[in-house]
């Protein structure tokens, strides 16, 4: 046989094999703490022998991997830095602008490495489709959380929620009171939606809000798509993905988004106002969960305890989000009264689409959204 | 090889790894067809714009003496700009002719005309303009050598035989350049067809081109379990690019005969 050919094919095979072998090395997972508790299966701080032990175990690990937590989203920037200082644990914040599905993809791709995310903060449909990846855990304040906002075993717990709102720069456009106002000529080229509704949960809820304002319901999102088609036809729809930067620049003077993100914008733009249209109140909660394969299982559990403590809940509130223990804390007097009172007013019964309704509406959007805003 | 195989296998599997043709069927949905059409329009138009303007520019600089500063500078700048795609390029355009871009504001103040209009920059028309920004320089780089390959002796020979300049171009230069030109058009086509990052930053609504539709299939938090449709879309792109590259190779063989 031709030696040169043989060498070439050998080299080619080696290249292919080494590419396949490039997958991250499996990490030997020993999650047992010094006191003999297996952190990866602990379902409450009791399992560690109390908070002191949990904190010690988490500090032994020394690190926590979080993913898809933008610093300007529900005050996560301050939440992370407060956690780091309080417990002397380094938080590695990966891909702050990623979407919920990216979190699950990252957990799968990085499974077994010490870079995998420890905790998730997910939109409803992604969370409910992946419950087998979560480790059940009940925080100390578990009883304060209303039953409809948590999995009975603690696989997931709603963390914070909000209402779909219209945020606007009152120095640029007239006051907004209803969704229909946005069709007016003063809003030419000014109305942005936070993302593409076939991709982003927030944008999806924005179309749902428009649907309900126009005679639709959680079961019928079509009027919402029609509304955006009208908005586009009127030249009012701005196809820029808004965030706090575009709001500060003035690129996106009107933004349809969760009310707590409007609150974040208001911190930097004095004339920014946020209104929850009373004819179309759409609510949504995010889902908090621990990765069952968390490389830092104790730190992941301590993070949960921190998020659901009075301190953690008030930090979310500071970001304009409604923490899930809000009502209980208001009763107990532990909530930051000033911030709680400053949330946008909401009247009417909020609509929270079920998982099934979300799937149906998503399919409708996949077929019709591109056409509507073409 | 490995990524290509992954794509081919994934395109014929459902979420649980069972064989299926459902993903390929998803390619015939109206949204997927619109995205394919968008990709073809974008790639073809920027390939043509890039090829024509790039060829003119290449001719102009090749006519200059080899040591001319202008010639060297243009080639160097083209080399940089041909690689100047992605996020930076997108932001540069947004800052220039976006809704509150520098040029938009200046033109608005001077003439009252709104360059930004109703957001053309963030759709297919915007992509065509922005992609041309790296297609034209790429054409200059790949096509300038073809002009340089035209030997002066050929022109002298033609003129000695009584040809006018027009005759020389029509009967000698253009036929010689044609394969290289068409090859460059195909290269530009493939270049635009596969570009992703620039479009990902510019376009956030609707999925006018295939790469953006793949993004939707992989990262959507509204439509779940679409990853294998993403593989099918990638397979569709591989098929198109393979056709283009086969054509490119055929043309290249014909050209290289003359360029030796």
Automatic annotation (TrEMBL), chain A:
A molecular function (GO) term: thiamine binding
GO biological-process terms attached to the record: thiamine transport
GO CC terms, sorted: outer membrane-bounded periplasmic space
Any coiled-coil regions, as ranges: none
Signal peptide from the UniProt entry: 1-23
One Pfam family, short name: SBP_bac_6
Keywords: Signal
SUPFAM superfamilies given in the database record: Periplasmic binding protein-like II
Annotated PANTHER family: ABC TRANSPORTER SUBSTRATE-BINDING PROTEIN, THIAMINE-BINDING PERIPLASMIC PROTEIN-RELATED
Protein name: Extracellular solute-binding protein
